[in-house]
Each structure stands twice: as C-alpha cells, then as structure tokens.
Amino acid sequence: MSAYHVAFMPFPAFGHINTTLPIVAELVRRGHRVTFATNGRFEPLVAGTGADVLRYESWLASRKLPDSVDAEYMVHEPVRSIDEAIATVPVYEEGFAGDIPDVLLYDVSTFAAGRVLARKWNRPAVELFATFASNEQYSLTQEIGSLYADEIDPQHPALIDFFVKQGQLLKDHGLEGVTLEEFNAPADDSNLVFLPRAFQPAEETFDERFEFVGASIGARSTEPEWEEPEPGRRVALVSMGSFGFEHQAGFVRTCLEAFAGSDWYVVLSAGEHIDREALGPVPDNVHLMSWVPQLKVLERAEVFVSHAGMNSVMEAMYFGTPVVAVPHMPEQRLIARRLEDLGLGVHLPEDEVTADRLRTEVDRLAADPDALARVRSLGEDLRAGDGPARAADYIEARAGA
Fold first, then answer.
1. Ranges of the chain with pLDDT below 50
2. Positive or negative: CA dihedral 188, 193, 197, 201
C-alpha cells in the first residue's frame, strides 16, 4: 500500500477537532504522513497523534459568543467564514509550499479555504461533517435560516458581502472559471459524516458520495481525573460545551438548585471564567470542575445535560447515555429536536429552564425504559462500527483515486 500525505484543515474548536484526532492517529499508525492545520490551543493534542502541525491563529475560533443569538448575528456568519478563508488560504499555501498533500480534508466551517486549495492544487478533497450533512434535498444552512425566516431580508448587506467576497477570493487565486453555484455546492464529491445514517434528517436522500461512519471516539490522555463516586451511585453529567462559558453562571446556579439534596451525583463543568465564590454554597453531591473528562464520566452517567453540540451528543450515544438537551445556538436547537424526535433524549428550550423543570426532565428521562433501550442499542451499533478505522479506509481510497 502506498503511503500518502494527508492534510487536515478542520475548524479549531473541540467539536471539530475531537472527531478528527482518532482518524489522524489511525492514519499515522498505518504509515501515512499527516499535516494538521490548527491553532495554538490544539497544537499539543494534534502533535500527540504523531501528525505534523501547521499552526495558524483563527479569529473565528477565538471570538466570544453573544448572550443571545439573534437574526442579526446569524446573518453575518457566512461573511465571517469567508473573511477567515481570505486570511488563512495564504497561510496554508506557505505552509504546504513544495509539499502539496495527496488529499485535503476540510469541514463545513473551513469549506471556502478547502475548496479553493483543492482546485488550485488539483487534489482530491473530502468534506468532513461533524454535524448534519447537507445535499441537494436537505440543507442545514436552510434549516437554520428557516428559524429566522421572517427576520432576515434576502437582500441584507451581509449576504451580498458574502458573495462579493467569495467572488474576489476565487479571482485572487486564479479560479475565475469556478462559478459561485458550483463553489457553494452543499457537499463535495466525497464526504465523511460523523454520525449514524439513522440520525441524519432525510437520510434516504443521501447517496454514495456520503460515508456515514458514526461516532469517531479515541483516547484522551490529557483530560483531568474526576472523583468517581461509589459503585451504584446515580451519576449525571452537566456540560454546556467549550464556547460561551462566561454566559453560564446563571445556568450553573440553576443546576446547583435543581440537584441539591437529591440522590444524584452530579459532575458539572463550570468553565474557567465563573466566579465560584459568587455561586454560593455548592451541594455535597455536586462535583464542580473547570474542565470535565467527558468520555470517562459518560461511561458512568445515566443522563447527560448538554448544549446539544453534535460531538457531545454522539459521545453520549456511544456510551448509551440519553441527553437532556438545552441548546444555545440554532444548530443545536435542530440537534435537540432530532434527539427528541428519535426518542433518544429531551429538548428543553433554554428560556424554559428552571431548577424544578430541569430536575423533572432528568428524573423522567432516566426512568424511561424505552428511551434507555433506544440509546443503548444505538450505542452498541456505534461501538461496533469503529468509526476512525472506517474513516481512514475511506481517506486512503480517495487519496489513491
């Protein structure tokens, strides 16, 4: 078998990075050379897989999320991604100068840079979907847009700016022959999707261009330890993701109130920015952590209270843990709805969260035998599927095509 040079260019955020690192480690184990573009935050994790690191800094990954995500914020998201591509394509080109990879892997947040470079270098590419995939029949972007259908003017200046900057990006890199319609295709010719096909909306419309490999789970040796309770103790994990910790103080206080005096042992991720003194007393049955070893806790947890990021949801499904989803971002609202539709969890809207409601939903879900059976069955399928190995097989085939 030939050894290939594989380039990974995912968005530098945990939900995007965690799905790719097990695949990188598998490719390196098979003798391939991997170059992974990422920022300083993830450089040590990437280097630990044996990959070479192409370091750059991402403004998009370092921004702070607003307290509430409204239509005006969302309408500017596309142009933010193009601004990031305009800044990063020259960095990638310099980093790969004289050493162009055999295959490029990019994700939905870095698609502009990935598609420009694949065309400019005439190399095959694979799009990575760490969330719902899109095709000609189902569009995640359109689904998110529908949440703000009456609030966004189709002629909004930000949308016009998006297409103008896209056109300029193509022109600057000698790709005037690529139409905007082609460039904005909902998917590439080859696509890896990190969820089971059954979890994908409109799954029957996705053809052979899409490989649904399920969860991509690997070892995380750098995560902290946690105070595991005695055997038989009920465990609930609460984590609202790695973005927006500064907005979570109110939610953390609600959780403390919800579980105080209960028989739950609660592992609660509070982040590094919360003033713990201002939280008041922490109940003895709540283990407050700045950063949670999520996989280790999910192995014990009976319920996961989550922001419904897709990576967290798939990790929960992998370990057979149902989810009480409290989404903050629009995409997370769609994932929460899908969980509820499939009977794998509960969607608790952010503006409906109270201590009583949260505790009620956790107790109810933990006692729902049908939901538990569905989640555990899905977990068995995901663990048997070996997502990282299947993804590595797919990448090798594409690189050698």
1. 245
2. negative
